[in-house]
Amino acid sequence: MARKRRSSAAESLKRRKDGEVSLSQVEEPDSDRRLIAIFVIFFILIPAVSIVVYKVKFADRVIQTETSIRHRGIVKTNISFQEILTEHSKATENSTTRHYDYPVLAYITPWNSKGYDMAKIFNSKFTHLSPVWYDLKSQGSGLVLEGRHNADKGWIQELRSRGNALILPRVVLEASPSEMLKKKKLREKAINLIVTECKEMEYDGIVLESWSRWAAYGVLHDPDMRKMALQFVKQLGEALHSTASPRNNQQHMQFMYVVGPPRSETLQMYDFGPEDLQFLKDSVDGFSLMTYDFSNPQNPGPNAPVKWIDLTLKLLLGSSNNIDSSLARKVLLGINFYGNDFVISGDSGGGGAITGRDYLTLLQKHNPSLHWDKESGEHLFMYRDDKNIKHAVFYPTLMSILLRLENARLWGIGISIWEIGQGLDYFFDLFHYALLSHQNMIKRYLIRICHVSS
Asked: Which sequence ranges are marked TM in the entry (predicted)?
């Protein structure tokens, strides 16, 4: 292609020179010469200068994006600890580009302050940002919404000056469900507290977490209480949808709802299932699906095996080649930016969650060999601590995250990240950079392991 352009340019130059000779031999009026000059300026010089300016202004940025991931060769299964230590902080400066077309919800927690900075730097990677600020609790015979002291209006203002991500703080429903769900006045009070807080603080809506709490209370085992619980979620969504957004009177406030994955291949009464999804679909803008924490210290292993993720999606949405695309888009696949360091020797087990900072410290101290587990689609490594106790560490890598992003794309669903303060900087490149060279390989892997449709 470049050779053809050079050839045509040479022919054009030759024609131009020949034309100049003939023009010099013919005496033309001044008006004709002026017309020729105007033609040359507007149709040759100005476009040429524009191309040069564009290349000078944008070429480095494009090259930097290209080399940040694929050309550095670090999205792979055979990654080494040295490569992670060298590359993890090299996120692209072109932080305003976004190529992932589905909704992306990112959580930010007060106890990992790095998340506040990541939200500002990579604001345009996300469609929704959810700071974990609020709890709705019982207080005597009433209710109270706690957490405004966590809210940072300056941070929100800066976020909005940098991008268009909607701000939806998370509210955890801690109030006693047996009281709140049975009493109409308490249900109305809870909804009023939440909607009023959104108005006063100028939020774009909320993310509500209540299903796991209700399951722990045993509420979801009772068919009548279960119906009341779903009706409350529906009413809250309708109340938020009837309230105008503080930034755009033409749009309503948004409502995301957190749901846990089923723990078996057969849905139980306390599981959130496809009928619940259908019941709430018009009242809820997104379902944040917690597809992580598959393992624990008593049963150590991968955080979110791809087969388990796929089973969860099939239980909720049916077959991946025969789903309601508008409904699927509202499901946000949970992706963990944290890992686990499990104790695997001895009788008691132990260990727990680790952040990116903890992970890097372990890599520096132990210089481990990373192993790619094909079945789970995750990297892990082993080490022995100062007491000679054996540990297994599972923490996300570029390859494991990309695998889940591609799986979500094949299903036509969104993403929810828990949580961005716990990850490594270069993770965010995956949300604005289309790794086309990997997609066919990943699709084949998913078809083989999970039997997903292409």
From this structure: 35-54
